[in-house]
Amino acid sequence: MFNLRSATDVSKANSFSNKMRRRRFDIFKKLYDQIPKPVKIIDIGGTAQFWEQVGFAGRSDVDVVAINLAAGESGFDNIKIVKGDACNLSEFGDQEFDIAFSNSVIEHLFTFENQRRMAEEVQRVAKAYWVQTPNFWFPMEPHFHVPGWQWMPLAMCISLIQKRRCGWRGPYTNREDAKLAVEEVRLMTRSEMKELFPKSQIWDEPFFGLVKSIVAYDGFSDPS
């Protein structure tokens, strides 16, 4: 029997979500391979586990600085986990990194203005970037696992998550906690991504004739 929560569990190497991530990463790697080595990557919202899964952990040709909510030990010499704010990377200089990488993070910033701030920082700190986010128009909302969740009125979403667990969140007995959980996720459209990353190329990730997620990238040569 298909289990949606298990299928979207990124902690499981062979979950559906991780298989989709690896497929996307294969496209990223073709772009990455064209960058002179060694390569410095800033991964906004990343983990050592992800880079280990894609085979970049422990390598000498790449160094990764992963920005997250808390600092930690990665277990690998070429991966550093530091505490930071996706909307304010002022501790890093202009073009300090070769690549800014981000996977399913920009939609977790509550507002479009915060998303704009992250986009500006991404384009400031790196010579090239790859930013992925779920598509607002894909019918299955990937965080709450409710079809059409992102199109429902806010009050309906809050009421629903107070009563039952929705994806990885809830139930919340306190309405303010429920409201915060719902408002944290703001899915983006293709046109919004293009607005925030005006020089980028946009790749639409296909899934049975629909667009599952959107990637904005720039600063690479096109893969051959």
Structure description:
There is one protein chain. The chain contains seven helices and seven strands, in the order ααβαβββαβαααββ. The protein has 224 residues and is of the alpha/beta class. It folds into two domains: 170 residues, Vaccinia Virus protein VP39 (Rossmann fold, 3-Layer(aba) Sandwich), CATH 3.40.50.150; 41 residues, no CATH class. Strands 3-2-1-4-5-7-6 form a seven-stranded mixed β-sheet, with helices on both faces. Strand 4, helix 4 and strand 5 form a beta-alpha-beta unit. The longest helix has 17 residues. It is globular, with a radius of gyration of 18 Å. The model has no long low-confidence stretch (mean pLDDT 92).
Quick synopsis:
By secondary structure, the chain is of the alpha/beta class.
CATH topology of the largest domain: Rossmann fold
Q: How many domain regions?
A: 2
Main beta-sheet annotation: 7 strands, mixed
Name the CATH homologous superfamily of the largest domain.
Vaccinia Virus protein VP39
**Fraction of residues in β-strands:** 15-25%
- By CATH, the architecture of the largest domain is named 3-Layer(aba) Sandwich
**Assembly type:** single chain
Average pLDDT metric: 92
> Regarding CATH, which class of the largest domain?
Alpha Beta
Morphology: globular
Q: Counting H and I runs of at least 4 residues, what is the number of helices?
A: 7
Low-pLDDT windows of residues:
none
**What percent of the residues sit in helical stretches (DSSP H or I)?**
25-40%
Distance between the termini: 40 Å
What integer value in Å does the Rg equal? 18 Å
